[in-house]
Every structure is written in structure tokens, then in C-alpha cells.
Amino acid sequence: MRQPYLPPPYPPPPDRSAELRRRFAEEARAERPDLPALCLLIGAELDGSLDDAGIDAAQAELDRLAGELPYRPGGPRAWAEAVRRLLGDRHGFHGTPGDYRHLESSLLHEVLRRRRGLPILLSVVWLEVARRAGAPVYGVALPGHFVVGFGPAADRVLADPFEGGRVLTGTDAELLVVGATGAPPDPSMLEPAPPLEVVQRVLNNIRAWAEARPERSDVGLRAVELALLIPSHPARLRYERGQLLVRCGQFVAGAEELEHYAGLIEVVDEAAARRIRQEAGTARARLN
After folding, report:
1. Across-strand partners of 267?
2. Does residue 174 have a pLDDT over 80?
3. Per residue in 191-249, pLDDT tens?
4. CA–CA dist 139, 197 (Å, integer)
5. DSSP single-letter state for residue 149
6. Confidence of residue 38 (pLDDT cuts 50, 70, 90)
7. Are 108 and 41 a contacting pair, CB within 8 Å?
8. Which candidate, 70, 91, 78, 76, places its Cα nearest to that of 149?
9. For 96-134, how does the pLDDT look when each residue is reduced to its tens digit (9 = 90+)?
């Protein structure tokens, strides 16, 4: 339901939302999930103004940008520099600290429109434009900062779309990891990130944005419910969903979800299950 005292974006109507979730679940279970399609379905679920024509237009924009890249510019560094010149220099895609305050920074269609966004959404643009042009490209989920890799491990080149596609040295990447974790990078951190891992991380960012804004618990709830449609999701999402349902005033549904989660963890953590059942009881009492 639209809440007039809240700023946009506003969610789609229930029938549209159900259709978007069906398509999201189907794509998430595909043999080769389509990353931009999943990101655009997230955008449509959170921003009711994004219709199917808008989704098609966003995909067409990625195609158009890919068509502006030179044909096979060379090795990994040449690819990284070519994409930087196109997206960072010519089209101005980049990020700033202020972008973390805006939900639009996590919505692919808005990132394509504004040329601004969080590291992971800018990386999705880099990935899809470069991939469509034939580049050997993949996402790299460094702790706290998402970047893009070009080429095989032996001559891998990393680029940071948040900084307009700046090519990173080994020291740059190490500093990013040390800044986030306090420890040097493990080689496994540089492995290509599968599409569903990227999508889950996008939803994590949206959940974090909503968590800092209790008045937008509706956004957090939609992000959690999409995350639950991804295969092999964390069981704790059920607990988060229950809490968000209660915050949104859906006390019975929230209590039922909390009780369901308590049943899942009772075997391994009886005390936590008892505490969560108490939360469920408190939620039910708010109906009186």
C-alpha cells in the first residue's frame, strides 16, 4: 500500500508484485541465471514505476553501451582500459560516498539513468557491457567492496567501477581488503563471483539501507522476501522476515514466521528458540 508521507519509490500493486516474484524465482533457479534480469526484477519489485517496457529499455541500454566498445582491444589490461574510457570517462559512471544514502544506488535501472551507484551495481554495468562485447570479465566480491576482474588468474587485471573504472594494482586490492578485514587478502577472494552471489549481495545492501531507516521496513521486507526465493538462502532470513512483518504491522504473519524459525533452530539452540517464541508471543499480544 502506498504511504503518502514516504518518498518514492513506491512498490508495485499486489498482482504485479506476484508476477515479478514468480519471474525472479524462475530466473534464480535457471541453469545460467541472468544477472541483469535479476537486478532489474529487484528494481521493479521496489519501484512500481518500472514496467516491462522500462526493463526492456534498460537491457537495450546495456546493449547500446556494449556496441560502443572497440572490437577485441587486446589482453586483459586493454579490455579494462577500454571499458574505463567508455563507461568512466565518456559516460561518467562512478560513485561517491553520498550514493550510499540513496536506495536508487542499488537499483540497476536507476544506476543506468543516473550514472551513479554503489560499487556492486556499477560493477554489474561494467560486467554486462564488457561481457556483451566479448570481454573475459567477471565480478570479484572483495570484502566490503565489489570490483571487476578481466582475464585469467595468471594475468588478472582488476578495475574499480566506483572510481570510474580505475585499474587497480596489487597493492590497491590488498589495501581494500586490509581496510575491510584487517588482514591481507586470501587468494579465494579473487575468484569470480557467481551471479546469485552478486544478487544476494545486492539484496544485502538494500536490507542494510532499510535497516537504518525503520520507516522503510517495507523495503527491507521486500528485499528479504526476494532473497528467500534464491536457492540455498540462509535460514536466518526467516527470522529477519518475521521481525520485519511485525514492524510492518502484520503481527499474526510475523509471529507465525518467528515460530517457524524457532522450530528450525530448536535442535541446535534451544535457548534461542525459546527466546524467539517469546518474541512471537509478544507480537501476537500486540493485536489486543
Report:
1. none
2. no
3. 899 999 999 999 999 999 999 999 999 999 999 999 999 998 889 999 999 999 999 99
4. 10
5. E
6. very high
7. no
8. 76
9. 999 999 999 999 999 999 999 999 999 999 999 999 999
Give the helix ranges, DSSP H, for the chain: 14-28, 35-46, 52-67, 76-83, 108-114, 119-132, 170-181, 195-211, 217-227, 236-247, 251-265, 270-285
Please report the sign of the dihedral spanned by the C-alpha atoms of residue 216, residue 222, residue 228, residue 230: negative
Q: Are 260 and 55 in contact (CB under 8 A)?
A: no
CB-neighbour burial class of residue 204 (10 A; exposed 0-12, middle 13-18, buried 19+): middle
Q: Kindly report the pTM of this predicted structure.
A: 0.93
Q: In terms of Cα–Cα distance, which of 82, 63, 60 is closest to 72?
A: 82
Question: Average model confidence (pLDDT) for the chain?
Answer: 92
Total count of residues recorded for the chain: 288
* Average pLDDT over every residue of 52-61: 98
Q: Report the amino acid identity of residue 195.
A: P
Q: Cell 541472468 sits at which residue?
A: 34
Residue 149 pairs with which residues in a beta bridge?
A: 138, 158
Q: What is the C-alpha separation between 126 and 14, in angstroms, rounded?
A: 33
Give Cα separations from 55 to 41, 62, 207, 219, 270 (angstroms): 8, 11, 22, 20, 46
| Contact call for residues 148 and 127 (beta carbons, < 8 A) | yes
Q: Give the phi and the psi of residue 287 in degrees, each rounded to 5.
A: -75, -20
